[in-house]
Amino acid sequence: MLGSVVATNTFSGLQDCDFARSKCAYRSSCYKALHSYMVGCADVLAGRTTKCPFACTRALISLTSTEYGLSLSTCDCGENEFCRLSKERIEVCRPEVSHAIADDTVVSCSVAKWICAADTLCSTALDFYHRLCRPMFHGRKCTPRCNNSLAILDRQEKATKLKDCFCDGSEDFPCRNIRKNTQRLCYGKHDWDEDFHYIPLTTPKTDSGSSAVTCHSLRNNLSTFHPIRDTGHGGGHRKSLDEFGEIKNLLRRLCQKPRSSYDNYDEYIDYL
Fold first, then answer.
1. Which ranges of the sequence are coiled-coil (predicted)?
2. What is the pTM of this model?
3. What is the pLDDT of residues 201-250, one digit of tens each?
4. Among residues 15, 18, 60, 21, which one has the least CA distance to residue 40?
């Protein structure tokens, strides 16, 4: 039922909305986006407003930018009257959302961040970037680990819109300062115009033509996220084995390691 309310069209032969919702609910990033949608769009779905609130727009952008969230936008309501009514009401949000997720649309950095955060791999890479680039954020220096984290982020499909996003003042982070410091400290562009919105996320290639970022350096970055087996006794900040799975998939994807290289937790730790 929850998943069905975000459907925007009903065509014969499409996936049943209840089934689409179940597929979304079993994936953490999609489930979180779906929950945000249910909360942020409650007034629209209940018919209490005919305008699309900011929170609803944000939630819909995040949800429809995921593979399983997008399937919810085209699922078949069948005879579910609540689903069909909800589809009609949420149409007020569709133009802005469709524009934001279009491939050729340049969006604000807030929107670009929402799109990335809704994807497991991109969200993990963005977290690395936030953790490893704090000195750069404060205008001190761009460390090799920070520089490598930019390369990790740039490899993610859902980070594409971060490359040319613009700061519009709606961000919950110091957008202009971060962008300026990235250019000045990581790329040596001291004359960079902060009013110009384009920022590449990775450093240029070396003179030899090969990437300056190696799998070894990426593994060093990822090693700061060692998963900790949860003994059930609490205490400390623990990474679940589910998150470990997400991280190992990211490392495998970036460095093109065979699946057999990470058959178990101990092999992963040895590899790092």
1. none
2. 0.64
3. 433 333 333 333 334 444 544 454 444 444 444 444 444 445 455 555 55
4. 60
Model pLDDT for residues 150-175, shown as the tens digit of each residue: 889 988 999 999 888 888 887 778 88
Q: Which residues make Cβ contacts (< 8 Å) with residue 231, sequence separation at least 6? A: none
End-to-end CA gap in the chain: 43
Reduced 3-state DSSP string for the chain: CCHHHHCCCCCCCCCEHHHHHHHHHCCHHHHHHHHHHHHHCHHHHCCCCCCCCHHHHHHHHHHHCCHHHHHHCCCECCCCHHHHHHHHHHHHHHHHHHHHHCCCCCCEHHHHHHHHHCCHHHHHHHHHHHHHCHHHHCCCCCCHHHHHHHHHHHCCHHHHHHCCCECCCCCCCCHHHHHHHHHHHHCCCCCCCCCCCCCCCCCCCCCCCCCCCCHHHHHHHHHHHCCCCCCCCCCCCCCCHHHHHHHHHHHHHHHCCCHHHHCCHHHHHHHC
Structure tokens at 80: 């579910």
Q: What does the alpha-carbon distance between residue 106 and residue 162 come to, in Å, rounded to a whole number?
A: 9
